[in-house]
Design brief:
Blueprint: H1 3-28, H2 33-59, H3 74-85, H4 94-126, H5 129-162
């Protein structure tokens, strides 16, 4: 496996995970219409990225539909973290839960942004036009996901944390 394939695999996994997490946050915070609708829209972007990455990988003979040997079960790990963080009778306030969710989304989007940047740099160095076009098309949307989570955190943090 070469470097481009390695980064494509990482982006594919990261965008899948981000899309799933965005939809989970949209569902958990459905009463907050902005969060619900924007998170749903951003999840659609990540789903589109997943499909585009898979298509590019297929052209290279790499099937990303199969789980990678090194992948653990991120869904199980996420559920375990959430269940242990929310012991019975000690569920965090909705504002704190939203801040935690936004922080987690921000970190995952930022990680994906780094992978897109790595793909773009590698594609430039190896003159891989297909990989460069993919990164150029998808990375701006990932940066928008990062900006949205950051803006929401800046907006919600003072009112949520000062009321504790």
């Amino acid at each position: 496996m070469n470097g481009v394939e390695l980064v494509l695999r990482a982006i594919h996994h990261g965008e899948q995970e981000l899309a799933d997490d965005l939809l989970a946050v949209a569902g958990r915070h459905s009463a907050d219409h902005e969060v619900h609708h924007v998170a749903t829209d951003l999840a659609a972007w990540s789903r589109e990225h997943v499909e585009r990455v898979a298509g590019t990988a297929r052209h290279r003979g790499l099937d990303l539909a199969e789980p990678h040997q090194d992948d653990s079960s991120p869904g199980l790990l996420a559920a375990l973290k959430e269940n242990t963080a929310e012991a019975p009778g000690r569920r965090p306030e909705p504002g704190l839960l939203l801040l935690r969710d936004l922080r987690d989304l921000h970190l995952k989007a930022a990680e994906n942004s780094l992978y897109w940047e790595m793909l773009a740099q590698l594609a430039q160095a190896t003159r891989d036009d297909e990989a460069l076009e993919l990164a150029s098309a998808c990375h701006p949307r990932t940066l928008r996901q990062v900006r949205w989570t950051n803006t929401m955190i800046k907006t919600l943090c003072p009112q949520t944390l000062s009321s504790l």
